[in-house]
Specification:
Distance between the termini: 39 Å
Largest sheet: 5 strands, antiparallel
Strand order of the largest sheet: 1-2-9-4-7
Order of helices and strands: HEEEEEEEEEE
Radius of gyration: 14 Å
Number of domains: 1
Strand content: over 45%
CATH topology: Jelly Rolls
CATH class: Mainly Beta
Length: 129
């Protein structure tokens, strides 16, 4: 059963382009991908986990990101905005195309549930400089 779930998760990553070149200590696991009633849009839900001191890496999305911190805390860094701490039980939003990063500034693992509403057929995340 676990192997089937793992294989399905890998297939979703491959089909949605969600995987970035992942940093050591950071994982992103696709949970589901659904076509939306809005033409050309898809919703992708993923769980991300960050070890203490680890960042996701600067990146963008071809659509919006809605996030909910399940455990721990992150410093959300969005270009052009002041960094802010988002803790367990809090939400965040990143507009389409903005370069951003999340860094676990806490002392324990941080876990985030993210929903992306993005253009169908485009990678969910693209690394940025």
């Amino acid at each position: 059963m676990k192997k089937t779930i793992l294989a399905a998760g890998i297939a979703v990553f491959a089909l949605t382009g969600i995987a970035l070149a992942q940093q050591a200590g950071f994982t992103r696991i696709a949970l589901q991908t659904q076509d939306l009633s809005a033409p050309g849009r898809v919703a992708v839900q993923a769980r991300a986990e960050f070890e203490p001191g680890v960042a996701a890496g600067r990146h963008t999305h071809p659509g919006e990101e809605l996030g909910y911190v399940l455990e721990g805390q992150l410093e959300l860094r969005i270009d052009g905005q002041a960094p802010r701490i988002v803790k367990a039980g809090e939400t965040f939003f990143v507009s389409a195309g903005l370069v951003h990063d999340g860094v676990n500034t806490g002392s324990s693992k941080a876990k985030v549930l993210a929903t992306y509403v993005v253009e169908k057929g485009k990678p969910v995340a693209t690394p940025a400089n």
